Amino acid sequence: MKIITVKNYQELSSTAGQLITDLIRRQPHCTLGLATGSTPQGAYDYLVERYRAGDISFREVQTFNLDEYCGLPRSHPQSYFRFMHDNLFRHVDIQPENRHIPCAENGDLQAQCDAYNALLRAATVDLQLLGIGSNGHIGFCEPGTPFDRETFLTRLADKTRQDNQRFFDSLDEVPTTAITMGIKNILQAKSILLIASGRGKAECISQMVNGPVTEAVPASALQLHPDATVIVDEAAAALL
C-alpha cells in the first residue's frame, strides 16, 4: 500500500485529480470506479477544470459508482445519482450510456443488485476511487462485511447514518439501507485510490494501514491489493 501525505484538502484533491487525469490521457477508453460524499468533490472539481481546459475528454470513459441509497428518488438532492450529475457528469462529455449507478428507486432490490453485479463482472475497472467512513467502511460495506461479498443490499450502521446526517435535515431522513458494491468487486479493480481528509479520519486510516486485515475494518482489505494508493492530508495522517 502506497501512502501519499499532502498538506491539506486542496492539495489532496489536486493530487488525486491529477492521477485520474493521467490515467484518462494514457487510456482514453478507461473504466473508472467512482465514489460520492464530501471528500471526492474537490477531485471532481479538478477533473472538470482539466476537461474545460481541453486536457482530457470523458467521451470514451466508462464509470461505475460504488453505491446508492435506497428509498430516495434519483431526483432527490442527496441521491448519489444526483450527486454525480451535479458534481461531474453534467460538466463533462461523458456519454449517458457509459455512466453506471445502482438503481435503488423501486422494484426488486435484489434483482437490481444482481443486474449491477452482472455489469461489473463484464467490466474491468482500471481505477477505483474510494473514500473511507469513520468506522472503516468502504462503499457502504460496513464492519462485519465478508471480503468475498459482491454487490448487495446493506443496512447502514448507526455510525454511518449519524455521520451522514449533516447532509439531511434530521437523522430520521437519512436512509437506512443502500445498494453497494461488495469488497470483492472493489478488490477486482486494477488499481485503487483511497482519499481521506481531516482529523476525524485519522483513527480509521491508522487501522486500515497499520492494523490487522479484519472484517471489523473493511478498508483493511486494501492491504491485500497489489496496487493500492492512499492519499491523506496531514490531519488524516496524524496517527500514522
UniProtKB/TrEMBL annotation:
Q: Which residues form a coiled coil?
A: none
* Signal peptide residue numbers: none
Q: Give the enzyme's main class according to its UniProt record, as a single word.
A: hydrolase
GO cellular component entries: cytoplasm
Q: Which InterPro entries match?
A: Glc/Gal-6P_isomerase, Glucosamine6P_isomerase, NagB/RpiA_transferase-like
From the UniProt record, give one GO term of the biological process aspect. N-acetylglucosamine catabolic process
Residue span(s) of domain Glucosamine/galactosamine-6-phosphate isomerase: 11-224
Q: In which pathway does it act?
A: Amino-sugar metabolism; N-acetylneuraminate degradation; D-fructose 6-phosphate from N-acetylneuraminate: step 5/5
Recorded catalytic reaction(s): these are: alpha-D-glucosamine 6-phosphate + H2O = beta-D-fructose 6-phosphate + NH4(+)
Which keywords does this chain's UniProt record carry? Carbohydrate metabolism, Hydrolase
Which residues does UniProt mark as catalytic?
D67, N135, H137, E142
Q: Which top-rank group of organisms is this from? A: Bacteria
Under Gene3D superfamilies, the record lists:
3.40.50.1360
Enzyme Commission (EC) number: 3.5.99.6
* Listed GO MF terms: glucosamine-6-phosphate deaminase activity; identical protein binding
Entry similarity comment = Belongs to the glucosamine/galactosamine-6-phosphate isomerase family. NagB subfamily.
Q: How does it assemble?
A: Homohexamer.
What's this chain's function?
Answer: Catalyzes the reversible isomerization-deamination of glucosamine 6-phosphate (GlcN6P) to form fructose 6-phosphate (Fru6P) and ammonium ion.
Name of the protein in question: Glucosamine-6-phosphate deaminase
Per the UniProt record, the lineage of the source organism begins with:
Bacteria, Pseudomonadati, Pseudomonadota, Gammaproteobacteria, Pseudomonadales
